[in-house]
What we know:
Two copies of one chain form a homodimer. Chain A has helices spanning about 10-30, 35-40, 45-50, 55-80, 90-105, 110-115, 130-145, 155-180, 185-205, 210-225. By secondary structure, the first copy, chain A, is an all-alpha fold. In chain A, helix 2 (about 35-40) crosses helix 3 (about 45-50), helix 4 runs antiparallel to helix 5 and helix 7 packs across helix 8 (about 155-180). The model of chain A has no long low-confidence stretch (mean pLDDT about 90). The interface between A and B is large, with 35 and 36 residues.
Amino acid sequence: MTETPATEKARQTRAAILDAALDLFRSHGYDGTTMRAVAQQAGVSAGNAYYYFSSKEHLVQAFYDQLQEAHAAAAAEALQGLEGRTAYSDRLRAVLSAWVDIASEYHEFAGTFFKNAAEPTSPLSPFSEASTPAREAAVQIHRATIDGSDLKVSKALREELPELMWLLQMGVVLFWVHDRSPDQRRTRELVERAVPLIDRLLRLTRVPVVRGVVDDVVGLVRSVKGP
Amino acid sequence: MTETPATEKARQTRAAILDAALDLFRSHGYDGTTMRAVAQQAGVSAGNAYYYFSSKEHLVQAFYDQLQEAHAAAAAEALQGLEGRTAYSDRLRAVLSAWVDIASEYHEFAGTFFKNAAEPTSPLSPFSEASTPAREAAVQIHRATIDGSDLKVSKALREELPELMWLLQMGVVLFWVHDRSPDQRRTRELVERAVPLIDRLLRLTRVPVVRGVVDDVVGLVRSVKGP
DNA sequence: ACCAAGAGTTGAACATGTTCAACTCGCGGA
DNA sequence: TCCGCGAGTTGAACATGTTCAACTCTTGGT
């Protein structure tokens, strides 16, 4: 974690470095952006950037937080735009589509996403301790999506569902990262087609024959989550 | 892709570099191993290593291939050891457990390996073009696991299942990479408990109410797989 | 007003993946 | 045997992430 700057000027310097980094990431990609270029555009020395961000990857962590906030806002707005339609499929589609829209601008340098995801020792992993706030905020979006819907599933499943849907979203991100189609058309298609199926599958969990297995799956998820 | 060397001496030099790299990766990890150290241990110049391997990451590809081969052998042996037991759950458990066994030796360094492997633009990504041979070999293990089992699912699902099970295995790997428990006990527990559930879920796919959705899911998987 | 302490800042130096022009060597053909 | 060509090899140079000792600036206490 980067320390919160003590003074107002320091906060501005930190913001300037972050803005410069995100701007350059967007225009030149992650590898194409040098720390020296970031520092220069921010009007500070190369070394000074390291006073605020202990590594180049930590700049990406700040980017995650920003992306997360943008998605939360866009998702809330999209859900608002549904005006009373409570079908879960509509709400889930809105949330996932909002993410693809928000993130599309950064698709080119998205490789760094999963580079961080797979490094378990790094605090940048979405599963890490350090990412807990951002992750829980993301899970919260799905909790709201579910709570405002007409979805009917068992109590146990409903409790785990927000986190499971976040996991699903990570899967979408994985697909998106590898999606080379223009404007990530294939990812959008995947979302459009997968959402109704997920809705149907969730409704199936209440069918007598299915219910037993689902309960056991939820039980496994629960025991595997905790340490 | 690295070119096949023309002469016998060149082939030996290439092998020496590779051996040195794998040795140092094991003892010092990926980041702790410098190309200069690899070259020195192989008895060549730093620059010469790049004549045979166009980047440090290309050296890791060899490690993956080795791991993949070891798993294929161990999985085959484990399936042999079942001696006629054709229950899919037994067979799947054997294959997944074999992977955890084989990989445990490298768990300490796996984090740094997979960090680099997870980048989609990297040839080390399991989804990349360059990894196609290793990936297909891994899928083939699951195909054999299914073919030798008593599993009864629809024709369409059965065709996609090997690839889906490979995906499941990638999920296990992701969990394993983050597993800090001694001897990766939690991953082993996950496999033990998840396998019977997967078996039950697969058998459920033939139930009339469920069948329709499953067909649609398979259809989606199919259309999303191809470009 | 002054001073000490600590925050903020710098530029140079370092480590390492990678590139490259130049060199050597081995071999097939004349 | 000798030549020339291309594979193989080198060491230095380069690019860039990162570190660090030294410096400056700000602030709070007396």
